[in-house]
Amino acid sequence: MRMNPAETKRLDAPEADASGKEARQKPDAATLYATEAPRLHRFFRRRTACPDEAQDLVQETFTRVIGHDVPTTLRNPSGYLTRIAQNLLRDRAKVARRRSADLHFSYEGDLPSGTDPVHLLEVRNMLDWLEAAMLELPVTTREVFMAHRLEGLTYAEIAGRSGLTIKQVEKAIARALVVLDRALGPR
Prior knowledge:
By secondary structure, the protein is mainly α. It contains 7 helices and 2 strands. The protein has helices at residues 29-47, 51-67, 77-99, 117-136, 139-149, 155-162, 166-184; strands spanning 15-16, 22-23.
């Protein structure tokens, strides 16, 4: 937490009141919250997009004040809270830059969350290429390949069903793989 030395006094340097007596003034958290929370909320509201986020930042500011070793006397509690608020915004901006949150956008369409539209287009293009390449295969080779890859049949089952030998089934699948590999090109 960054603190401005001018905003705080040391514990061993008590304040002197008007009568010359030394007095310590410990800020009461409830009073400080009641007086400063509305101002901090306006501060955050001007700098964030969401009112809920502004309220969360107000809470985080006071959590930092209460959770850390705060000097018992504050010359300027308002300034101290403002400094914490500025540091919170700065920290959130650093995290957002690291995560590139400002580049992300929310899409409420038919796509499931986490689906990349560019990736979907690439997949569609690949499927189109595969379909075109499959249509170029001889009918027997195409049927053997689809029986093995789509239906999950073994070479022996395909041979029994199509009247080919197991060796012919192996060669047909190998030819299909070569043609499809060429059609897809380098990946």
